[in-house]
Each structure stands twice: as C-alpha cells, then as structure tokens.
C-alpha cells in the first residue's frame, strides 16, 4: 500500500499483479490498482482530471491525461472518500506509476493532489528494480 496526502486529501493506492490476465511468454503483464481518495479536510472538493506517468522496466514512459476517474468526477465533502479500481498493462515484468489529480475547491480554484509513486512488480521479474 502506498499513501500520500496533499492539502488534506489522502490518496492511497494498492497494486495487485493479475496472473490470470498476464501472458509472460508474450511479454504481456497486467496489474490492477485500487485507489482510495479521502477528504480529511474541512472543505468540499471535486476531482476534475487525472494525470498518470507510467514507466516500464525498459525506461519507456507513457502519460495518460483525462477527465475524472472511471467515468466519474466525484464530489468529496469533509470526511468522505471515493474508491475505484483500474488496471495497467505493460510489456515488461515490472514498472512504476505516479501521477496527480486536479481537484476543484468550493471557490472553483484548481489544485493538484499527488498520487504516490507505486511499483508494479510481477513474480516474473527476478531482479525487482522497484
């Protein structure tokens, strides 16, 4: 589990390697990751956009940007949380993900919330670089 807090918004990520969806002989490795976004502050915020930087074991990086998460732009009041699960395929047996969410406060101002860097490690990677 990986966790980081920015402006009283805590983001916790738990990655899991999906052996049943992976095919190491074809250089296809798949992970699921569960994200929990918790508002520990006193103001209501809305998640507007996401930005991911995904790096595989060969050093190739891809960036993913888009509105919301899993088709939603959740509104989080004080003490509320939102959870979702997504996935990531790679052509290498390990990698790293890191990113940020753009959140909007009650006044309409946007601010970035860090998504902690987390390792994508499969049992097929014998040297575990992450």
From TrEMBL:
PROSITE patterns in the cross-refs: APAG
InterPro entries membership: ApaG_domain (IPR007474), ApaG_sf (IPR036767), Uncharacterised_ApaG (IPR023065)
GO biological process: error-free translesion synthesis
Residue intervals of the ApaG domain: 3-127
Pfam families membership: DUF525
HAMAP family reported for this sequence: ApaG
Protein name, entry field: Protein ApaG
Organism: Thalassobaculum litoreum DSM 18839
Lineage of the organism: Bacteria, Pseudomonadati, Pseudomonadota, Alphaproteobacteria, Rhodospirillales
Name of encoding gene: apaG
């Amino acid at each position: 589990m990986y966790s980081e807090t920015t402006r009283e918004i805590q983001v916790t990520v738990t990655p899991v390697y999906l052996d049943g969806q992976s095919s190491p002989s074809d250089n296809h490795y798949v992970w699921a990751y569960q994200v929990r976004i918790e508002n520990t502050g006193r103001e209501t915020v809305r998640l507007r956009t996401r930005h991911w930087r995904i790096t595989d074991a060969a050093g190739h990086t891809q960036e993913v940007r888009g509105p919301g998460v899993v088709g939603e732009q959740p509104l989080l009041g004080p003490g509320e949380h939102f959870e979702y699960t997504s996935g990531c395929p790679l052509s290498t047996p390990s990698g790293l993900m890191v990113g940020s969410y753009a959140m909007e406060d009650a006044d309409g101002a946007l601010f970035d919330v860090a998504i902690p860097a987390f390792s994508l490690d499969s049992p097929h990677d014998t040297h575990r670089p992450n």
